[in-house]
Design a protein that fits this description.
four-stranded mixed beta sheet; alpha/beta
């Protein structure tokens, strides 16, 4: 079957694309032979988003999310590859947890990879896993604080050992850089426990110092470092300086840290609770500048679904995180519409750079011979975020009621048109 996409507005201009056997068989200005045609006039075609930062849940947390519902949400949001974080139950820190996750992930409808979790005492097990050269293992995740993981590593010597292990097997170290010891200090100083003060209670100092430590160890060891969900202007300054010295430093921004800030928390309540916290408008502006000057490499959703009932608990008990797979592209496409960056740069931010950082071949760009993972956007279609219509199980969002800047009209995964969904494709 040869599927022709005509009149596509791509990062390289108007193109016609042939999809055959899951591959981009042709891209150019000619009109090759085809079996079926999709006219994409006035639409935007991009490589599907590669999301390095997803919490699929499943296993003992299927009530929060499953691979089936997460991948449906990804398809709806134009995300064709997801990388799952290790803080599941069981955690992906050993063979047992890895094999359980692999079994659950068989239900995924999108491409996926797995990050292993590093703890204070599992380096030998990680080595045994990596010695098998598994193609689905893409990175090693570190938590410097107990965001939602009990396995916290802060000791610099142990951290250095983890970085060296990652370097030995050419894996990327991903870090949640808030330091637990500093969070503990500010928690004791807090006079009020309320979501409106989450940014002060979970103080920016923890993220800044953690990022500084991670950059120092990365430069000392030469390992590849990926700073997750950068949230402060001070971290941006540190990363910008480090990237002038090392080509192995990479960073990520989430849509919520880029766009939202602590001023929404009075209205959003715990539905806006996330770690690192939503910061300030000045931090939003610094993150935008970091995208423009390429200090930020990737967009990651940090999709972290919880049950609505859990989020409705009092502040101290409500878990941090919210869904993000379905809102990421519609909310961040303002970067192109408002001419902060080019369509080419946006393509790099959502796809190409992640493929480079994590060593994925033949994906992330619109090129002949590359996988036909692509999305088609309608920039003339703007709609409000309505969580009740989400495909994820977590039907709430701090973006509720916010108007997006584009609509994901079609999603192709390995050449198969997955969006619009066919009748019976989605079960709630």
């Amino acid at each position: 079957m040869r599927t022709l996409l005509t009149n596509c507005q791509s990062p390289d201009g108007i193109k016609n694309i042939i999809i055959k056997d899951g591959i981009i068989d042709y891209i150019g200005s000619d009109l090759p032979e085809f079996d079926e045609k999709l006219d994409c006039a006035n639409l935007i075609v991009l490589p599907g988003m590669i999301d390095p930062h997803v919490h699929v849940r499943d296993l003992e947390m299927t009530y929060k999310e499953s691979w089936e519902t997460a991948s449906n949400a990804a398809i709806a949001g134009g995300i064709t590859t997801i990388m799952d974080m290790p803080n599941t139950k069981p955690a992906t820190t050993n063979f047992f947890g890895l094999n359980a996750k692999r079994k659950a992930a068989e239900k995924s409808k999108v491409n996926y990879y797995i990050h292993l979790g590093a703890t204070t005492n599992n380096l030998n097990e990680l080595r045994s896993i990596l010695e098998g050269n598994p193609e689905d293992i893409i990175g090693i995740k570190l938590f410097l604080a107990g965001s939602s993981s009990n396995e916290v590593v802060e000791d610099p010597k142990k951290l250095e050992e983890i970085f060296l292990l990652a370097k030995e097997f050419d894996k990327v170290v991903l870090v949640h850089s808030e330091m637990q010891s500093i969070l503990n200090k500010w928690q004791k100083l807090a006079l009020v426990q309320s979501i409106e003060f989450h940014n002060s209670i979970r103080h920016r100092e923890a993220a800044i110092n953690g990022t500084r430590l991670m950059l120092d160890i990365a430069q000392k060891t030469g390992a590849k470092l990926y700073i997750c969900h950068v949230s402060t202007r001070e971290e941006i300054d540190l990363i910008r300086t480090a990237k002038r010295i090392s080509t192995n430093i990479f960073s990520e921004v989430t849509p919520h840290h880029l766009i939202l800030n602590e001023t929404i928390l009075k209205q959003a309540g715990n539905f806006g609770k996330v770690n690192p916290p939503l910061r300030t408008e000045a931090d939003n502006e610094a993150l935008l500048e970091a995208i423009k000057d390429r200090t930020i490499d990737c967009l990651g959703t940090d999709h972290a679904p919880h049950a609505v009932e859990e989020k409705r608990q009092e502040y101290s008990k409500a878990p941090s995180g919210f869904p993000g797979l379905e809102t990421a592209i519609p909310q961040t496409y303002f970067l192109v519409k408002d001419e902060y960056i080019s369509l080419r740069r946006y393509s790099e931010l959502i796809s190409c750079n992640a493929a480079y950082v994590f060593g994925l071949n033949n994906v992330g760009e619109l090129k002949a011979g590359f996988k036909a993972d692509l999305i088609i956007l309608d920039p003339g279609f703007e709609e409000k975020v309505i969580p009740e219509l989400f495909k994820t199980k977590a039907k709430y969002s701090p973006f509720e009621g916010v108007i997006g800047h584009t609509k994901v009209k079609y999603t192709f995964v390995n050449g198969e048109k997955m969006l619009p969904f066919r009748r019976g494709d989605v079960r709630y």
